[in-house]
């Protein structure tokens, strides 16, 4: 039987090497722009790697590249963890 493993805190997750490596791949694949509005870091916005299905909804997808999209600060904060819209 598989032993229960408690979920990582957000701080542990986002500081993990595994997440940082996956985040880099997602950013590299994005072309450096927000999937929703097209804003770029060169426009002065901060880009976020967003979990399409939030970690709080399905933690099994937290390390899935297929579950990541790039959103600027405004688009990501607007989306929050209220929905699972894939803007790609």
Report what the structure shows.
This protein is α+β, with helices and mostly antiparallel strands and 88 residues long. Helix content is 28%, strand content 11%. It has helices spanning 10-14, 17-29, 73-79; strands at 47-51, 68-72. The termini are far apart.
Concise account of the structure shown:
This protein has about 90 residues and is α+β, with helices and mostly antiparallel strands.
Which helices and strands, and how do they pair?
Layout: H1 10-14, H2 17-29, E1 47-51, E2 68-72, H3 73-79
Bin the strand percentage.
5-15%
Q: Calculate the terminal CA-CA distance, rounded to whole Å.
A: 38 Å
Query: Given the helix and strand composition, which structural class is it?
Result: alpha+beta
SSE pattern: HHEEH
- Residues in helix, %: 25-40%
Radius of gyration: 14 Å
Number of E-state strands: 2
Largest sheet: 2 strands, antiparallel
Treating each run of at least 4 consecutive H or I residues as one helix, how many helices? 3
The residue ranges in which pLDDT falls below 50 over 5 or more consecutive positions are none
Which key features would you list for this structure?
88 residues; 3 helices; alpha+beta; two-stranded antiparallel sheet
């Amino acid at each position: 039987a598989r032993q229960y493993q408690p979920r990582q805190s957000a701080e542990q997750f986002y500081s993990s090497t595994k997440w940082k490596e996956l985040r880099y791949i997602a950013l590299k694949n994005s072309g450096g722009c927000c999937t929703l509005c097209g804003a770029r870091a060169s426009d002065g916005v901060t880009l976020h790697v967003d979990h399409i299905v939030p970690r709080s909804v399905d933690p099994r997808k937290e390390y899935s590249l297929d579950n990541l999209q790039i959103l600027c600060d405004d688009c990501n904060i607007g989306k929050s963890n209220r929905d699972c819209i894939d803007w790609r």
